[in-house]
Amino acid sequence: MIIRLSKIFMVMAIAFFASLVAFGNITDYGSNFAFVHHVFLMDTIFPDATIKYRAIETEWLHHVGYIGIITLETLTAIICWIAGFKLLAARNESAKVFNKSKNLAVAGLTLGFLTWQVAFMSVGGEWFGMWMSKQWNGVPDAFRFFVTIILVLIYLVQPERDEE
């Protein structure tokens, strides 16, 4: 039972984290929008970088990108919360039933992984050269987030077995 509870509460911990991130981005839109704005503008990357042609100067597209990020974070939170409670409800069921109840959690954790790995590491970090910015570099934080999520996902998918 302790392993099942451990998995359940880890999924809920990711739900809590994603909730806090989404809440912060929604309630402090302006401060956090500045981050996305500068990443899209590429105005703080190395002065001699030859990738500046990738910059997006159209501000409404910055808002679209930021709202997209907030949406992904919010969906991650919602899916992981629902999945955590679904797992909690199945905690006393057979291994087969509990294993099947993991599907939504797998989906939520995968979405969270993709949010921070694709949106921040790949698009922000590599395409927009965010790693070159001293002020607007979110790569280390994104890495920490998606590695935490992938570790929970790997732990979660380890199959349960009924005790004999």
Radius of gyration from CA coordinates: 19 Å
Order of helices and strands: HHHHHH
Could you tell me how far the N terminus lies from the C terminus, measured between alpha carbons in angstroms?
14 Å
Shape: elongated
Strand content is under 5%
Q: Return the structural class.
A: mainly alpha
Assembly classification: single chain
Query: Helix count, per DSSP?
Result: 6
Q: How many strand elements? A: 0
State the major sheet. none
Unreliable parts: none
Helix content: over 70%
Q: Round the mean pLDDT to the nearest integer and report it.
A: 94
What are the salient characteristics of this protein?
mainly alpha
Short recap of the structure:
This protein has 164 residues and is mostly helical. Helices cover 73% and strands 0% of the residues.
Describe this structure in words.
With 164 residues, this protein is an all-alpha fold. Helices cover 73% and strands 0% of the residues. It has six helices and no strands. The chain has helices at residues 2-27, 29-41, 59-89, 95-100, 103-127, 139-156. Helix 1 runs antiparallel to helix 3 (59-89) and helix 3 (59-89) packs antiparallel against helix 5.
Secondary-structure map with pairings?
Elements: H1 2-27, H2 29-41, H3 59-89, H4 95-100, H5 103-127, H6 139-156
Helix pairs in contact: 1-2, 1-3, 1-6, 2-3, 3-5, 5-6
